[in-house]
Structures are given as C-alpha cells and as structure tokens.
Amino acid sequence: MTRSFKYWQTRIIITTMIGYALFYFVRKNFSMAMPGMEADLGISKTSLGLFLTLNGLLYGFSRLVNGLFADRVNARFYMATGLALCAVANFAFGFGVDVAEWITGQSSGTSFTNTLILFMGITWLLNGLLQGSGFPPCARLLTHWIPPKELATKMSWWNTSHSIGASIVIILCGYIMGHMGIGDQHTGAWRWCFWIPSGIAFAGAVFLFIFLRDTPSTVGLPELEDTEAQLKKTTRTVETKAFLREKVFGNRLIWILGAANFFVYICRFSVLDWGPTLLKQSKGVSMENAGWLVALFEVSGIVGMIIAGWFTDRYMQSRAHRTCMFCMIGAAVFVFLFWMLPPGAPVWSLFAVLCGAGFFVYGPQALIGIAAANQATKKAAATANGLTGIFGYASTAVSGIGFGYVVQHYGWNIAYVAVIAMALIGAAVFMLMWNAKADGYAREEVEI
After folding, report:
1. With 0-12 CB in 10 A as exposed, 13-18 as middle and 19+ as buried, what is 348?
2. What is the CA radius of gyration of the chain?
3. What whole-number distance in Å separates Cα of residue 74 and Cα of residue 118?
4. Which of these, 158, 132, 166, lies nearest to 358 by C-alpha position?
5. Alpha-carbon distance 121 to 127, whole Å?
6. Residue 210 lies in domain
7. Is the per-residue pLDDT at 423 higher than 90?
8. Mean pLDDT of the chain
9. Closest-CA residue to 135 (of 74, 62, 30)
10. Neighbours of 56 (CB within 10 A)
11. Chain-centre distance of CA 202, in angstroms?
12. Could you read off the pLDDT of 231-243 as tens digits, one per residue?
C-alpha cells in the first residue's frame, strides 16, 4: 500500500467517523429535550414516545432505501447533503412553538397544542427519513478504501463513532438544559437542544464536503482489486436466490437472532431515549448530571463491546449467541439494581450501576451482527444483518410509544419491571440456539 493511499484511507476513516458521530448530534438530542418539552408544552409521554417510535421505524426503512441510492452516487456529496438537511430539520423543529402560534394565532389551548404536535411530528419524521443518509455512504466509502482483510478490524473501531456522537451530544444538551432558557426553571431551554446541535452539524456537513472523497480513482489512485467474495456476485440469479433462502430467510438461527435483537434494542433504546427523563423524574437527578450519566452508559457500552468479543473467542469457542445470553442476564440484574436505588442516591452509585447496564447491553448489540454474518456465511452476511436490523428498529414500537404509555399511566416502577422482563425474554431467546455451532460454513460445504 503506497504512502498516498494510506494517507487517504486514514483521512476517509477519520472524516466519516466525525461525520457519522454528528448525525447523532441531530438525532439523540431529542432524548435530552423531552423533559423540558413535557414541562413547558404539556406534551404527554405517550406523544413523545410516538415521536420516538415513528422516527425509529422510518429510520430503519430509510437506511434500506438510502442504501440503494448511496451505492450509485458520489458518497461525498450524498453524506454531506444528508447531514445538512438533518440540521435544517432540527433547526425547524426548535421553532415549532413559533410556527404553531403563527398558524393558530394563539399561544395555548387545544388548537395550539394540536398544531404544535402535528408540526413537530412531521418535522421529526422528516429527520428520521433523512437520518438514513448517514450510514449507507459510510459503508460505500469504507469498502472502497479498506481492503477486505483489514475491514473487520478497522470497521469495529469505526463503529464506536455512534457511541461517541451520542455521548457528546447528551452531555452538551444536559448542560443546555441546566444553564440556558428563561428564569430559574430554564423555560424554553429544550429549543437550544435542537438549535445548537443543528449549527454544529451544519458546520460538520461543510467539513465533510471539504475533506471527503468518493473512491480512490477520484484522487488519481488505483481502485482496490476485486475480491473473491465480490466476484461471486456474478453468479446466476437463481443460484443466489436459492442460497439466500437457505442461509438467511429459511435459516431458523437468523430468525432467532432477529427476535433476540428486538429485545436487545428495547433495553438499549429505553435507557438511551428515556434515560434523561427517567433520571430526572425517577431519581431526582439534575439534567446536567443526567447528561453525563447517559453519556457514560454509552462509553461503558464501548468497553462492553470490546470485552464481549474477546470473551466470545477466548471462552465461548466463538459462539457469540452464548455470550449474548449471559449479557442479557447481566443487563437485567443491573437494571434491577438501578431500580432499587432510592431517589437522591449518590450520583456515583447511579453512575456505577448504569455503567454496568450499558456494559452488558452493548455486548449483544455488537455480537448479534457478527453471529448473523457467521451463520449466513460471508456470501449472505449483509442480507442477514439487514434482516436482524429490521427487528432492531421495530423495537421502537415498544421502547418509544409503548414505554411512554406505560410511564404515563402506570408510573416508573412498572416501566422498570418491563425493561427487566424484556432483558430476561431476550436471554431466553438466545438460549434457544445454545447448541448451535459458531458459524454456518461447515454446513455450507454439505448443502451447496
């Protein structure tokens, strides 16, 4: 590999990591704004949960659609434009109150509230659709700039970008909620949770446009040679469809992993999306400290992902599904311990227990993709991960509107019980494939 290629490869990896982290600036800021929106605007937890659910479902659909386009256009322009549009959607969301007042001529009342929720709902759904323009161009760029033999290692480190972005924006918005706005109650601070991150994201879009390049050939370098796996794409369509039916859509283990992913994501999003509200209302934590606690949940998840991978290869004979089962039990235990902590408990105790939950939740979140790829073999890894990913984002129907409805009508204690139950059900689903082999390659030799 020439020095010039190495320079551009490093530049592309770092630039896409920064860019993808900034997509989370205008996505996970909503979680920190929710307590302020509820207090200032009277928006119910059910309505806030509906925003989360529809945004998550549209995002899952958008990733699929954007993937089809991103493979065919210049990834540099595609990613930069997508981030800029997400920033614009967030900026407009922050002006929801002003738009509702202008349309209805009122600053309160049923008509004002309904108009406000409608405008915010449309804007946040649009943001969900635009968010799908983040990962697909990154996937295109990384596969063009990183040889297959290096992709797994470098991609695993690149994957920390979403946790880094979520951590930073949660800390930032926690500070905003605690120090900005009007009066002692910081009324209206939630709006700055959209305006400030959107400004940073828009600057990031300019950064992407300047520093990204599409493929090696666009900077006068030779393209990476086609690999064996890429050449196999030229096989006959009938054979390809039969292989996908056998290894993915007709593979019981892939469907089990998909079902398990559903419960893993419920646990993850319940904390990530509702964590700030939960900490403030259930444990009496200030919004600034809540931001740090949820951010540390993400950071501990990075450690959990790395250790879970090492533990799987070292002690589980690469059977990732077995590690996932133990992780979900660990997550249930730490959520239970968190529930038991009384309001006003020392912040360090909340930090320790919440970090333990993040450590165990993020292990399966990373390992399911590896397990699906191994079971489907490298020739169907992307399709298998696409299928399990659909289950993951379908979970927002529970972690979004479902969680909001439960909290609003039955209180936080029932919500804790629900998350613990979801973790234990997830562990039971993983147990269904306890005796499965680590991968599907041995069976491939017999079946193909």
Report:
1. exposed
2. 22
3. 34
4. 166
5. 10
6. 10-219
7. yes
8. 81
9. 62
10. 23
11. 20
12. 454 445 556 666 6
Please, what is the end-to-end C-alpha distance for the chain in angstroms? 36
Instruction: Tell whether the model's pLDDT for residue 150 goes beyond 80.
Output: no
Domain termination residue (choose one: 219, 244, 269): 219
Is there a single domain that holds both residue 142 and residue 289? Answer: no
φ/ψ bin of 117: left (φ > 0), alpha (ψ from -120 to 50), beta (otherwise): alpha
CA dist 128 and 125 (Å) reads 5
Do residues 197 and 256 both lie within one domain? no
Structural domain includes residue 227: no
CB 170 within 8 A of CB 277: no
Per-residue pLDDT at 246: 62
Beta bridge pairs of residue 182: 187
Could you give the CA distance from residue 37 to residue 181 in angstroms, rounded to a whole number?
12
Positive or negative, the Cα torsion across 140, 138, 26, 289?
A: positive
Which residues on neighbouring strands pair with residue 187, listed in sequence order?
Answer: 182
Helix H or strand E segment including 307: helix 287-315
Q: 3-state SS of the chain: helix, strand, coil percent to 5?
A: 80, 0, 15
Q: At what angle do helices 29-41 and 161-179 cross, to 10 degrees?
A: 30
Kindly report which listed range (169-178, 219-228, 345-354) carries the lowest average pLDDT score: 219-228
- Of 306, 424, 429, 434, nearest to 370 by C-alpha is 306
pLDDT, tens digit, for every residue of 51-95?
888 888 888 777 767 766 766 778 889 899 999 999 999 999 999
pTM for the whole structure: 0.73
CATH of the domain at 415: 1.20.1250.20
- CA distances 296 to 166, 206, 366, 413, Å, are 10, 29, 18, 23
The verdict on 247 and 188 lying in the same domain is no
Map residue 222 onto helix, strand or coil: coil
Label residue 228 by pLDDT band (50, 70, 90): very low
Final residue belonging to a domain, choices 161, 184, 219: 219
Task: Indicate if the pLDDT at residue 381 is higher than 60.
Answer: no
Low-confidence winner among 102-106, 123-127, 219-223 (lowest mean pLDDT): 219-223
- Whole-angstrom distance, CA of residue 360 vs CA of residue 384: 23
Nearest to 82 by CA among 13, 18, 135: 135
Ranking 20-24, 125-129, 295-299 by mean pLDDT, the lowest is 295-299
